[in-house]
Amino acid sequence: MVTLSIQDIKDMKGTYSIKLGNIKKYIRITDESIVIFSKVKNDISGDIQEVKEQEIYISKQRTGFGEKSFFNCPICGERRVTLYKPLNMNWFRCRSCLPNNIYKERCNAYDAGGTAIIEYKFKKLITKLDLKKSITNKHIPFDYRFYWPCKPKYMKYREFELILKQLTALSAMRDTTILQKCRYNTKDINRILGSKRLEKLELLAIFDAIWFHKI
After folding, report:
1. pLDDT score recorded for residue 161
2. For the chain, where are the E strands, in sequence order?
3. The predicted structure's pLDDT at residue 136
4. Alpha-carbon distance 85 to 170, whole Å?
5. Between 20 and 30 A from 91 (CA), which of 53, 60, 76, 81?
6. Number of H helices and number of E strands within the chain?
């Protein structure tokens, strides 16, 4: 079972490669919709063409704090936060439109190595910074440039820089989990956060190192 949550794509725009199960696909995200497509080679011209497989529309609802985004289920049209695609089906759909109980196929997020454990570690780690000095409340995706003023007075610079690198790595692992459909268990995450290679990397190089699994 592949799941897609509206939170997974928060603040993301553009085209990304993803894995749906073991199959490589592409996803294009805009404010209005998500288009899932594949790329195939034309046998005659040799050109690479895009083949659209599904478009999922996004709607917004006004709240007391602004707007909240929802998927419109492609089957029933109802607003949903999460959509599901069983491995034997081609389209994402909401829970009500699934033929079987989704919990027969789903694993606990902590066991499966999803984003939950990454986000838990991120939220726990970021509290070590002096967030009162931050000019943004947007922590994930994490941009270390907004957090240079957030070093607590008692903290050594080397420790502060390492925390920024670890937060950057966790944010990159979350994006990689969502877009590449890979998995990090607790052991993997702890190994990366404690690695000497992460400590030696420049902050700008961390995202690519995580994305291409070089740590």
Report:
1. 96
2. 2-5, 14-20, 23-29, 33-41, 48-63, 66-72, 79-80, 82-85
3. 67
4. 26
5. 60
6. 6, 8
Cβ–Cβ under 8 Å, residues 93 and 72 = no
For residues 67 and 213, give the distance between their C-alpha atoms in angstroms, rounded to a whole number. Answer: 36
Helix (H) or strand (E) holding 177: helix 157-180
**What would you measure as the largest C-alpha separation in the chain, in angstroms?**
66
Question: What is the phi/psi pair of residue 48, to 5°?
Answer: -90, 125
- Dig out the tokens for 72 from the structure: 């419109």
Residue 61 Cα distances to 34, 58, 95, 151, angstroms? 18, 10, 20, 37
Average pLDDT per block of 10 residues along the chain, 215 residues long? 81 82 82 90 81 91 82 90 81 82 44 74 91 77 91 93 96 89 85 94 93 88
